[in-house]
């Protein structure tokens, strides 16, 4: 039995060997077992002929400006994608629709301008997301990471962000590390809720000394702990000019309404007096006629 089975096993090994030799590897890239590395090859476009069973794809330090959705969807087993230091822009919505197994994604040092719900909503297994060092990134939608509930490491440091809604990160149950340093944070009353969450959460903030306010001028370069106390005082105990205007309008409306109500009450009272006098005069006239 062993002698008859040996030729089949040898044939199978031979076929597997031929198949492995025939596996293509992108030009100017190196391929190992389930890994394709194209770092620093001055690639202008997404490489072709990537093995379909690739688990780890490294495209760092190139000049790629576009990630084709179709080609990426062929890499259904991809779990690690490194695209740092490229020219990727703001057209990433639905790009990762076919890479649902992706666990690690690095898009740092690119030209991202915004993150919407459609950007990463299909990455249900995502654990690490790095979008730092995108100086043109100025907006992250409130529900941008609503589907990324496994996210543990999120880095948005050194971008153009001035505001981040608290619910964007507060609703991530597994978040453990959040990079926020060297951004242009606008520390107004709308940002107080986020700063309070930072102080109370169990999330770790690396490079915390550089998480500071950029505006307004009175809070420039101040760290978040110090800013929280000042914002609590200025936002919760003091009134701004628009608040006084609003209160004056409310007061005027109340005064006007009360004046109108008093006038109507007076008119009704006078009307009742005249009506009662008229009834009395009619009764007197009837008595005289009798």
From TrEMBL:
One of its GO terms (molecular function) is voltage-gated potassium channel activity. Keywords: Cell membrane, Disulfide bond, Ion channel, Ion transport, Leucine-rich repeat, Membrane, Repeat, Signal, Transmembrane, Transmembrane helix, Transport. It is a single-pass membrane protein. One of its GO terms (cellular component) is voltage-gated potassium channel complex. It is found in: Cell membrane. Coiled coil: none annotated. Residues 183-236 form the LRRCT domain. InterPro entries: Cys-rich_flank_reg_C, KCNMA1_auxiliary, Leu-rich_rpt, LRR_dom_sf, LRRNT. Pfam families: LRR_8, LRRNT. The chain crosses the membrane at residues 244-271. Residues 1-24 form the signal peptide. Its main location: membrane. Residues 24-56 form the LRRNT domain. Interacts with KCNMA1. This is LRC52 protein. It comes from Falcunculus frontatus (Eastern shriketit). The lineage of its organism: Eukaryota, Metazoa, Chordata, Craniata, Vertebrata.
């Amino acid at each position: 039995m062993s002698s008859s089975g040996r030729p089949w096993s040898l044939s199978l090994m031979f076929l597997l060997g031929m198949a492995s030799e025939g596996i293509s590897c992108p030009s100017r890239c190196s391929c190992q077992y389930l890994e394709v590395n194209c770092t620093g090859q001055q690639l202008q476009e997404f490489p072709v002929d990537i093995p379909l069973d690739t688990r780890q794809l490294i495209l760092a330090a190139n000049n790629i400006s576009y990630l084709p959705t179709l080609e990426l969807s062929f890499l259904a087993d991809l779990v690690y994608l490194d695209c740092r230091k490229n020219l990727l822009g703001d057209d990433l919505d639905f790009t990762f629709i076919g890479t649902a197994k992706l666990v690690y994604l690095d898009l740092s040092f690119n030209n991202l301008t915004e993150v919407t719900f459609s950007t990463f909503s299909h990455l249900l297994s995502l654990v690490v997301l790095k979008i730092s060092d995108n100086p043109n990134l100025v907006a992250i939608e409130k529900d941008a990471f609503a589907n990324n509930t496994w996210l543990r490491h999120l880095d948005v440091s050194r971008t153009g962000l001035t505001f981040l809604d608290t619910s964007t990160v507060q609703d991530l149950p597994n978040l453990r590390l959040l990079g926020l340093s060297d951004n242009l944070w606008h520390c107004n009353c709308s940002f107080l809720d986020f700063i309070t969450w930072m102080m109370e959460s169990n999330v770790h903030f690396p490079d915390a000394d550089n998480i500071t306010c950029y505006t307004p001028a009175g809070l420039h370069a101040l760290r978040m702990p110090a800013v929280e106390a000042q914002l609590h005082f200025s936002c919760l105990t003091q009134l701004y000019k628009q608040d006084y205007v609003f209160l004056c309008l409310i007061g005027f409306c109340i005064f006007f309404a009360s004046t109108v109500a008093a006038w109507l009450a007076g008119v009704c009272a006078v009307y009742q007096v005249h009506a009662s006098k008229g009834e009395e005069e009619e009764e007197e006239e009837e008595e005289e006629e009798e």
